[in-house]
Amino acid sequence: MKLKLISLSLFFIVMECGLARGQSAFVDATAQAGINHVYAGYEYGGGVACADFNNDGWLDLFVLGGRNKPNLLYLNKKDGTFEEAGAAAGLVDLLMGVGAVAGDIDNDGDVDLYVVNFLAPNKLYLNDGNARFTDATAAAGVGDPNTGISAAMADYNNDGYLDIYVINYSTTQYSSVFYRNNGNLAGQAGTFTDVTAATQTGVIGRSLGVGFFDYDLDGDQDLYVVDEYNLDHLFRNNGNGTFTNVTTEAKLAKTDGMGIDFADYDNDGDFDIYIGDYNYDPLFRNNGDGTFTNIARQVGIDNDGIGWGVNFMDYDNDGDKDVYVINGALLMPQLEKPNVFFKNNGAGAFSRMGADFGLSFLGEGRGSVCADFNRDGYPDIFFTCVIKGQSKLLLNKGGSNNWIVLNLVGTKSNRSAVGTRVEVVAGNLKQIDEVRAGSSYASMHPLELEFGLARHAQIDEINVYWPSGVTQTLTNVGVNQVLKITEPSGTTGVTSNSPNQPEKFVLLQNFPNPFNPETEIRYQLEKAGEVFLKIVNLSGQVVQAFDLGLKGAGEYAIKWDGKNQKGGRAPSGIYFYQIAVKSENGVLRSEVKKMVLLE
After folding, report:
1. Coil, helix or strand for 407?
2. Alpha-carbon torsion angle 65, 66, 69, 74, nearest 10
3. Which of 39, 124, 227, 507 has a CA-to-CA distance to 476 between 20 and 30 Å?
4. Phi then psi for 134, rounded to 5 degrees?
5. Integer Cα distance of 71 and 81 in angstroms
6. Do the Cβ atoms of 123 and 140 come closer than 8 Å?
7. How far apart are CA 309 and CA 339, in angstroms?
8. What is the pTM of this model?
9. Could you report the average pLDDT of every consecutive run of 10 residues in the chain (599 residues)?
10. Cβ count within 10 A of residue 357
11. If you compute the radius of gyration of the chain from its CA atoms, what whole number of angstroms results?
């Protein structure tokens, strides 16, 4: 027994310091989660949109089916599994769906969905708040029927309503389309106006990826369009309803690109660009003067596959953005390369870690998103596969660093807060991010923002720069919580200071530990809240889950008998138990501790 305890102690030391060499950081949870998806048909298809479609605080997945296959809506059941609800939601469609993007188009408090189809009309679905959708395409006038690939949403004119930019893949005939939201939806079908010509953003070419971001930090959304064979397009928003193509001026080199994502990878205060490419992927560093420099090879980015889905994510919550790229070979086996993961070393360089982290999947990957699906504070990954290979849900095994997730709600700005820039300051760690709708490849990361905080136990400041011009400051903010921030009323420049400490609870160490046959888990609530307990193994698989319901302030205990959800005995080993508490004001906070079961 002493030898076992010594061994376990050494393991805990390794867990606290980071992953041991060769130990995977992610686990394939696809089958356990109940996800069964392969995109059929068009080799340029395979988009996915991630959002909370039923307003329960947990992230869901909408995935395209492809040729003669229905689109699927996977609703998160909060226990490590998903329920497919596409038919019940009214989203079954046998058109050639390729891409998707989501946002609150009508500002009624739920996330609507725009589906991009190839050689068929695109679709706008309005959400009733319970993941039941109505096709509003015809009334809204956004059913472009051409060679659609992907789309992005943004409030380009800062009028408080989300607009839609649609990519068509065409060398001579079909231009991209920019739809301005006329702001008359109000929970029902409203109208859009085609402003492609007026905004000077029309592109005819083999365009694939698209995304909005504020590259010059002037408070409005600029537009980047990725081209497979020609020079990309960076359109600078002029702030007057028009855009200027500044690609050459910005010194952006030609790419053979597919997917795109944006992040401040070097924490210097502006947004950089990563593009999944047919050749070696470029990483364009924002020089802060309106120009960019491709520094990929200099910093260790050397993906020689065909990059599609692109995902900036802080997988270990150490305060800087890593990169996961989904590779696919356009159905040419000789070009197949595994997916790649580049770990940000925090000193301006990356290390290639795909094989070590359990992420080197080989196949026809396409669209992808990174999101915290199990609400443990660490970002997970979902990516689709085309024709061959299974789409994958990869759960992050987590660690001991702190984090915060921000859900932003616009009032004067668009309800989804798209275009809102957030600065988080914790000690000497300063990070920025931006709410976006549309990136990766034909896909969409969630609207919430997640920041890794390393070992910082408190956030000094959260500065929120809303598209309306309102600036909001929160001080002394607690860590390890999902925090809702609502845009305050007031005029430009108004600052709102508030403590925003979450309603506290304490998770105690289980006793006995190690244990056999059962152990007791105790927790203390300062205020009332809904309580959830989840027990996972080292592979990230949910072993047992309890919905403990609404509890008042006080101290509580629950016993675990070492049995799994099927009633069988869990094997000896190390487990993690997580208590999540959702307070009456909607704040979700969680804590995790380790325990050991010895048979």
Report:
1. strand
2. 0
3. 507
4. -120, 130
5. 19
6. no
7. 10
8. 0.84
9. 32 36 78 95 93 97 94 95 97 94 96 97 96 95 97 97 97 94 70 96 96 97 96 97 97 94 98 95 97 97 95 97 95 90 93 84 93 95 91 93 96 97 97 98 98 95 96 93 91 45 73 90 87 84 89 89 91 88 73 84
10. 22
11. 23
Tell me the DSSP string of 112-132: EEEEEEBSS--EEEEE-SSS-
pLDDT of residue 498: 47
For residue 390, give both structure tokens. Answer: 């299974």
Tokens of 369: 């998103």
Read off the tokens for 118. Answer: 């190839």
Greatest CA separation for the chain: 76
Torsion angle of the four alpha carbons 13, 16, 17, 21, in this order, in degrees rounded to the nearest 10? 80
**In this predicted structure, what is the pLDDT of residue 15?**
35
Secondary structure of 230-267 in the HEC alphabet?
CCCEEEEECCCCCEEECCCCCCCCCCCEEEEEEECCCC
Q: Are 398 and 378 in contact (CB under 8 A)?
A: yes
Say how many C-beta atoms besides its own lie within 10 A of residue 362's C-beta. 15
Q: How many other C-beta atoms are found inside a 10 Å radius of the C-beta of residue 555? A: 10
Say which residue the tokens 């709708």 belong to: 437
Question: What pLDDT shows up at residue 541?
Answer: 80
Which residue(s) pair with 563 in the sheet?
569
* pLDDT on residue 503: 55
Reduce the DSSP state of residue 28 to 3 states and report it.
strand
Q: What does 34-87 look like in DSSP terms, one character per residue? A: T----BBS-TT---EEEE-TTSSSS-EEEE--BTT---EEEEE-SSS-EEE-HH
> 14 in helix, strand or coil?
helix
As a whole number of Å, the end-to-end CA separation of the chain is 11
- Contact by Cβ (8 Å): 533, 558: yes
What is the DSSP annotation of 303-337? --S-EEEEEEE-TT-SSS-EEEEEE--TT-GGG--
Q: What does the pLDDT read at residue 584?
A: 67
The tokens for 202 are: 């029309």
d(CA 409, CA 417): 6
Contact, 411 vs 484, CB < 8 A? no
Q: Which three-class secondary structure state does DSSP give residue 359?
A: coil
Q: What does the block give as tokens for 496?
A: 């709102």
DSSP 298: G
Neighbours of 102 (CB within 10 A): 28
Cis-peptide, bond into residue 145, ω within 30° of zero? no
For 110, the token pair is 């739920």
> 353-408: per-residue pLDDT in tens?
877 788 888 889 999 999 999 999 999 999 999 988 899 999 999 988 999 999 99
pLDDT value of residue 521: 93
CB of 35 within 8 A of CB of 380? no
What letter does residue 299 receive in the DSSP assignment?
G
* Rounded-to-integer distance, Cα 291 and Cα 253, Å: 11
414: Cα within 13 Å, side-chain hemisphere? 33
Q: Which residue has the tokens 């990516």?
A: 383
Residue type at 192 in one-letter notation? F
Please tell me whether residue 137 adopts helix, strand or coil conformation: helix
Sign for the pseudo-dihedral over CA of 180, 449, 83, 585: negative
- In single-letter form, the type of residue at position 528 comes to A
Nearest-angstrom CA–CA distance, 363 and 327: 7
